[in-house]
Amino acid sequence: MFSSGxxxxxxxxxxxxxxxxxxLEVLLGFIYSGCLDAEDIPTIEATKMVLQAADKxxxxxxxxxxxxxxxxxxxxxxxxEITLLAAEFSxxxxxxxxxxxxLIE
Length: 105
Known about the structure:
mainly alpha; 0% strand; Potassium Channel Kv1.1, Chain A
């Protein structure tokens, strides 16, 4: 892309309009390090954006890492939103089972 004479090679820039800067920083940080920190997903909205990016670019490991954080921090006030995210972003069966277990207890 940068050596083929395309627009990106002339501007030395790739535009990714679908996601904000924070989401792309989390995505690239995870790609390079394989790590995700709680600060990376401080709000449900930020979490949803990261899950959308992971889904779009098919980075299932990032989705798994996000759901691991979400499930570890499950509370009565967050379980509804997290259940919706799990359904929308195809959480693993293990993650869905953990959410169901929380609801039953």
